[in-house]
């Protein structure tokens, strides 16, 4: 109950944030721009619209999650409102979970709005609705949930600027961690290789949520992978939130 | 005394916090193990890929250069590093389809970066079995770096391996004309000239090599090749004369001097060492007294 109240308030607060509307505005521009960009290509125009559209949803969703998530806890501490909140019978864990769920709800609504614009542009071009696109968007949303948790984690112990940089680093690592696998293959077996293997397993693999290529090219997606990716996202998000809770419960605000 | 915690209350509160922390750590470890296991499982699931999808949409280097915001050299390094890994993977059967595209992008981004031309050509020849592509990549390298003799030299070497001696000769000639080219280029050019049966040019080049060589071993090599050129020219002339003799008299000549007596030759030539050529009157075969490279 306390969590839902905090989540509702976080959502209300996010609604008033100008950054959210600014990012949404640019996302809409990019989505519209995909139609004009497609005119420049020779060949499959729909592919360009799909690629640019999905990338825009992911990029601006990620920026929303990071820019808003990193300020969530910091703002409360900076404005001293956290004292009023924690003086009430609210546990710090509940506070964090409420903040997280509130932002996830905001991100969800924004993703839905961006998806509607995207599907509309696609429909006006092809006169068909490709439902498979929604699958790619759904997994983009799972990735954004994880990014929200990451932004929240960094927000518990550092300033928004540093937290944004760390979150961006996490995002880049998450999308490039596959290259470690290539490195592992080149390294001779031993302690170095074992260390790399551990690092590769622990580092986030955000490519697990990337089904854009499959959807754009109508390639089959293994159901098993969809299931594993979903649970992976859920567990990784829980891991990050647990870490945030451990740090936040020891945080001294004075 | 309300509001003031007793020592007992404090201790039970601390215990609760400790239990909570332990529980959180436990969940943390469990989730870490679980997502690591899930990561391993997800890696086991093969995903369909569009062949060459990672590169076919990469725009040409000319346009990409503007998008790198002044980091074109760094972009070239990254694409080159990636290309080496990409072409080293045997999982992508049609990976060579875009070889020219990739290496032309690197060339546009950093034209003075010479390694990619050489490595690209090697991949084209040895992996893609496409020497024409190798020539294209090396020509691109030479066009952007006219002072680099290594590109025509490597192209000449590839052509020589393909037994395309006309092309090899042309590339070696280009390499030879670039200042700084090592002396071996001239020797390879002379050899290619011999292979294309331009004996006059081969003789001239080997003679130059012989006369300008500072090391004895180079002089020896040049002398051996001069021996070969002369003996090839002489044995060809002698063999033709022998053939004509057979046509005229219906038999092989008894010795090579018979050719002079019959008016088919002015004199019987000797090899570079001043020795007579060997003649077999039973078969009409003429050959040099020594094997040129065994001298």
Layout of strands and helices, then pairs:
The complex is a heterodimer of chains A (254) and B (295).
Chain A: H1 2-15, H2 18-39, H3 45-69, H4 72-78, H5 81-87, H6 92-126, H7 132-155, H8 160-176, H9 178-186, H10 191-202, H11 212-216, H12 223-249
Helix pairs in contact in A: 1-6, 2-3, 2-6, 3-6, 3-7, 6-7, 6-12, 7-8, 7-12, 9-10
Chain B: H1 7-44, H2 53-56, H3 61-67, H4 72-88, H5 99-109, H6 115-127, H7 131-144, H8 150-161, H9 165-177, H10 184-195, H11 199-212, H12 216-249, H13 257-261, E1 278-280, E2 285-287
Antiparallel strand pairs in B: 1-2
Helix pairs in contact in B: 3-5, 4-5, 5-6, 5-7, 6-7, 6-8, 7-8, 8-9, 9-10, 10-11, 11-12
Can you tell me about this structure?
The complex is a heterodimer of chains A (254) and B (295). Chain A has 254 residues and is mainly alpha-helical. Chain A is built from twelve helices and no strands. Chain A has helices at 2-15, 18-39, 45-69, 72-78, 81-87, 92-126, 132-155, 160-176, 178-186, 191-202, 212-216, 223-249. Among the domains of chain B are: 57-145, no CATH class; 197-295, no CATH class. In chain B, 66% of the residues lie in helices and 2% in strands. Chain B has helices at 7-44, 53-56, 61-67, 72-88, 99-109, 115-127, 131-144, 150-161, 165-177, 184-195, 199-212, 216-249, 257-261; strands at 278-280, 285-287. A two-stranded antiparallel sheet of chain B has the order 1-2. The longest helix of chain B has 38 residues, at 7-44. Chain B is elongated. The mean pLDDT of chain B is 86. The chains are: A mainly alpha (254), B mainly alpha (295). The A-B interface holds A 181-182, 201-202, 205, 208, 213-214, 217, 219-222, 224-225, 228-229, 231-232, 235-236, 238-239, 242-243, 245-246, 249 and B 17, 20-21, 24-25, 27-28, 31-32, 34-36, 38-43, 45-50, 53, 85.
